[in-house]
Design goal:
Length: 127
């Protein structure tokens, strides 16, 4: 199924292909908790940026492996390149428009990322 998504102001829009009933992760690390990010990790081939490349800025921290992409206008992070799946895209399910009718939310212990990252490693693989 194809979903449309966007940042708050609409400057950044995208499309993502994912199952009808989404299975997403809610991470307890500092950046995810503060931003309310619900993780939908997909292969890059399932993600298309439709507009707003010029409105994106990138933030990195710690290992600098994850590329957090934010809209320069409204500050929303609607997707990013995750450290756990650098060959994929991690979409914020809260930025899908409209929100899916059904989502299964799994808690992920990102505070202890090193011990748990292996649980996400397969998410960007083609199915």
């Amino acid at each position: 199924m194809k979903y449309k998504g966007r940042c708050h102001c609409g400057a950044v829009t995208f499309e993502v292909e994912a199952p009808e009933i989404l299975e997403v992760e809610r991470c307890n690390c500092s950046i995810c908790t503060k931003s309310g990010f619900l993780h939908l990790i997909v292969p890059q081939s399932k993600f298309t940026l439709l507009s707003g490349e010029e409105q994106l800025t990138t933030y990195t921290f710690n290992t600098k492996a994850a590329k957090h992409r934010f809209c320069k206008v409204c500050g929303i992070k609607s997707f990013y390149i995750p450290r756990s799946n650098p060959d994929g895209v991690d979409v914020n399910a809260n930025c899908l428009d409209p929100l899916p009718a059904s989502m299964k939310i799994n808690d992920f212990d990102g505070i202890n990322w090193e011990q748990n990252a292996h649980k996400l490693a397969q998410k960007s693989q083609e199915t």
